[in-house]
Amino acid sequence: MSALGSTLVVAAMSTGLDAIRDDPLAALLAGVAILASAVALGVVLRRWTTHLRTLRAQLLVVTTSGVLVAAVAAWLLADLMILDADQLGPALVVLGLTAVIAGVVVAVASTTLGRAAHQLEAAVHRIEAGDRRPEPPLLRNDELGRVSLAIAGLTARLAALEAEQAALDAERAHMLSSISHDLRSPLAALNAALEVLVDGVATDPDRYLRSMQADADALAGLIDDFFLLARIDGGRLDLDLATVDLSECCDEAIEALAPSALARGIHLKLDAADHVHVRGNARALGRVVRNLVDNAIRHAPAGSTVHVAVTHDGRPIVSVVDEGEGFPDAFAEQAFERWTRADASRNRETGGAGLGLAIARGLVVAHGGRIWIDPPPGGRVAFEIPAA
Q1: What is the domain extent for residue 44?
Q2: Tens of pLDDT along 247-258?
């Protein structure tokens, strides 16, 4: 077969050169016609093969069509006397055998191609059905392999986004539940006091008015905390920094909370080094200390002492320790998260809205510092701020 093919090629070249020399215009027209036919067939195949269901069928159609174009070109060359008519038959036989061999090769070689396409199709259907289990990508260096890697990355990203969305939904539901609970209690108390006053059955109106003022102050404090936390989370907290005496901030915070501590039978004690200067905002740092001390007062046993210490052993540190049981081990890891409280019942006597420590962390981080809880025993809450 190779000898026949070689003979046909040599004979065709010799005859073709003679024909081109005798009639170059006809040869040019034949070449243009063959090229135009090939282009036209390529355009038709590009549109028609998209309707076939498998890549193997597309490859077979394209290969067979290429051989048919070659056969038509041989016939045209023979008709224009560029190819000897006696050589047309053997040339067509060779093209036919070439088509058969090419079809077999394509059918065998395209097996892995079809299998890879089916795997990609199955992977897409799994993603569509909500299956986010990772699948090993196809070990191919071609476009299908890259598509497989992209699908694997897409699956992992979708799984991460869905997990993040689920966490956000859970946090949102918890936040709404917490807000509604923490707002409902003072509102209910206000409504009850108003009803008593309106009905004229209050034996001590001043006591009810004082209670209403306390509930109104609690509502105002909650709303302030909500807005402050929103500014912290949104990165919109603008702090005017200056040189601040941390010991003085702690002393002012303790003085402000002294009446609350006295009402609960708690003694506040401050151990502070003189003039521990940091670069910060006095109001924000005072808020941090008040939140920590207020939290300690709520959980300290009656008759005990809450110790506040300010040290400067290389770095300014403020620590708050009460004589209570400390934070539960499971809660200590999430104590600085929003809306978290050790008391799940959200009793107003044992805690606020679960925002105090979260706000304290946000303000400390905004100063470039850090805040932490020491592991038990002890349960000290402390934070540090860069020195001035």
Answers
A1: 2-109
A2: 999 999 999 888
